[in-house]
Amino acid sequence: MRGDRSPTPSTTLLFAEPPTASPSPPSTSARAAGCSTGRSPPRLWRTLVERVSNIDTIAVHPDHRGQGIATRILDLVEDDFRQAGYRALTLRHEHGKKHFFTARGYSSLPRLAVDLPPTGLFTRAEPGWKFAVKPLDDTVTLTSQRGVTTITGLLD
Ligand SMILES: CC(C)(COP(=O)(O)OP(=O)(O)OC[C@H]1O[C@@H](n2cnc3c(N)ncnc32)[C@H](O)[C@@H]1OP(=O)(O)O)[C@@H](O)C(=O)NCCC(=O)NCCS
C-alpha cells in the first residue's frame, strides 16, 4: 500500500503477498498436461502468481472495528493490485466473516478453484475456512465448472 493513503496503521494489520499458497502448485498430471500444451509448469505457475493476488490476513484492533477501516484498506489494496496487473484477489477467512466479504463484492466459497485450460481445474479446500474471491478486471469471471464456482479467464 502507498504510505500517503494508509489509514491508521497503528490499529490495522494486513499481510498481502503473491499467492504462493493459493491455489496449490500444479500436480504431476498438470505438469504432464502443461508440457503437452507447450506451456511449461513453471511458466504456468508464474502466470498464476502474476495474476492472482492473495491477502493472508486483514485485522483491525477490536477497539477500532465498525468504523470502516477494513473496508477502506480493502478498497486501497484492490486498487493497488489492479494497477499492478493482478486480475483476481483471494483471501482465506473464517466462516463467520462471510457477510463482511460478500457485502464488499467478494464471493465467499468453500473451495478455491481456478480453471486453467486446457490443463483443467486446480482446487483447494481447507476444513473450517472459506475463500473470499474478487475478480479485479473484466477478463476474469466466476463460473460454475462441474458444480464448483471457479475463477475463469486468468490465462486469457
Ligand atoms: C473483519 C475485520 C477486519 C473488519 O474490520 P472493521 O474495520 O471493523 O470493518 P469495517 O468497519 O470496514 O466494517 C465492519 C462493519 O462496520 C460497518 N461500518 C463501517 N463504517 C462504519 C461507520 N463509520 N459507522 C458504523 N458502522 C460502520 C460496516 O458497514 C460493516 O458492517 P457490514 O459488514 O454489515 O457491512 C475485523 O472484524 C477483524 O479484524 N476481525 C478479526 C480478523 C479477521 O477475521 N479477519 C478477516 C479474515 S483474514
Automatic annotation (TrEMBL):
Q: Where is this region: Disordered?
A: 1-42
InterPro entries assigned? Acyl_CoA_acyltransferase, GNAT_dom
Q: Which Pfam families does the UniProt record give? A: Acetyltransf_1
Q: Which residues form the N-acetyltransferase domain?
A: 55-137
Q: Its Enzyme Commission number?
A: 2.3.1.-
Q: Which CDD domains does its entry note? A: NAT_SF
Which SUPFAM superfamilies does the UniProt entry name for this protein? Acyl-CoA N-acyltransferases (Nat)
Question: Sorted alphabetically, which keywords does the UniProt record give?
Answer: Acyltransferase, Transferase
Protein name, please?
GNAT family N-acetyltransferase
| Species of origin | Streptomyces sp. 900105245
Transcription regulation: is it a keyword of this entry?
A: no
Q: Recall the GO molecular function terms of this protein's record.
A: acyltransferase activity
Enzyme type, top EC level: transferase
